[in-house]
Design a protein that fits this description.
Layout (H helix, E strand, L loop, with lengths): L5 E2 L1 E3 L1 H6 L8 E7 L7 H6 L8 E2 L3 E5 L17 H7 L7 E5 L2 H8 L37 H23 L8 E4 L19 H7 L7 H21 L7 E4 L28 H20 L14 E2 L1
Parallel strand pairs: 2-5, 2-9, 3-5, 3-6, 6-7, 7-8
Antiparallel strand pairs: 1-4
Length: 312
């Protein structure tokens, strides 16, 4: 008999305070992260929310700090997220933690200009892209535009911050609880910003470094694939990153946006945010991985189906 899947019930920290009855939820999750998790009304209307498309075979609650106060912009901002830190270290014992982090840091690293305000060249250790005079041979493919020195700096930063998140978890009642992270789908660099006038993000960076437009899509895939490989390597290091579970979103078939498009295209609302169909595809696949860990059962092959998510 086919299981009946239910949408994740998402609450803000304030809504959670007012919720008196929690016994009907099989699993309770704490969530935090960037705009992929934010369900502030303007963000849900603007693009979509990965949390609201998660579904489980039993009633599941998530208290999301994403979009509450300021959306997470850097991993280190977790320290300045009072709701998240308080709830992680409070009286509630969560069944797991959902995190959407690392993507903004990657975008910020790609946006670092080749020259400092003083006119000096920015060291390669502090940027992800190379100027034309620094490009490698054509035989290297799009890797010729990429700063491995800068990538090493980024990797060191991300690993240190992940360890910090795990230490926050293990300093309180939620020690050893699973932390679930997703990777990011591969965006098409294009002139498609958000309704709040932010962005585009990768598009101006690649233009500033004079990277040929024909290589933009491959360059985006290189960077997002390297991030996915890094996150999965951390999760595979069970001693260094205990109970960290990473889902590789880059392997979910997502309809790409058309190069040069400026609005909704494929499964994308703007350059780096998915629309509802894109979130639906990734969340349905990720749900299976999360539930397999929470339930201690083997991962099932078929993805659940269903409509849009819902708030509590």
């Amino acid at each position: 008999m086919e299981s009946r899947f239910e949408h994740l019930v998402c609450l803000t920290p304030d809504e959670f305070k007012r919720r008196s009855e929690l016994s009907n939820f099989r699993w309770k999750l704490l969530a935090h992260g960037d705009s992929w998790f934010s369900f502030a009304a303007q963000r849900v209307d603007a693009h979509a929310n990965l949390l609201e498309e998660l579904v489980f075979s039993q009633p599941t609650l998530a208290v999301s700090c994403a979009g509450h106060h300021n959306a997470l912009r850097r991993m280190v901002d977790l320290e300045g997220a009072p709701d998240f830190v308080r709830l992680l270290d409070g009286e509630v014992v969560w069944d797991g933690v959902l995190l959407s982090v690392g993507g903004n840091d990657l975008v910020a690293a790609a946006q670092v200009p080749a020259s400092l305000p003083s006119g000096e060249i920015t060291p390669l250790t502090l940027r992800l892209l190379r100027k034309q005079t620094e490009w490698g041979p054509p035989s290297a493919g799009v890797s010729r535009y990429f700063s491995e020195e800068g990538w090493a700096t980024y990797c060191e930063y991300l690993r240190a911050n992940l360890k910090h998140v795990l230490s926050l978890r293990d300093d309180g009642p939620n020690k050893g609880k699973p932390i679930f992270m997703h990777c990011y789908a591969v965006p098409t660099p294009r002139p498609a910003g958000a309704e709040d006038a932010s962005g585009p993000w990768l598009y101006p960076a690649l233009k500033a470094y004079a990277i040929p437009q024909a290589d933009w899509a491959a360059m985006s895939r290189l960077m997002l694939s390297k991030l996915a490989t890094l996150l999965k390597a951390c999760a595979a290091d069970k001693d260094g990153y205990p109970q960290l579970h990473v889902f590789d979103s880059t392997q979910v078939p997502i309809a790409p946006a058309a190069l040069g498009s400026s609005g909704i295209s494929g499964d994308w609302h703007n350059e780096i945010h998915l629309n509802h169909s894109g979130c639906f595809k990734i969340a349905r696949a990720w749900s299976l991985h999360i539930e397999a860990v929470l339930s201690g059962k083997p991962l099932v092959a078929a993805a659940p189906t269903g409509g849009r998510g819902r708030r509590g």
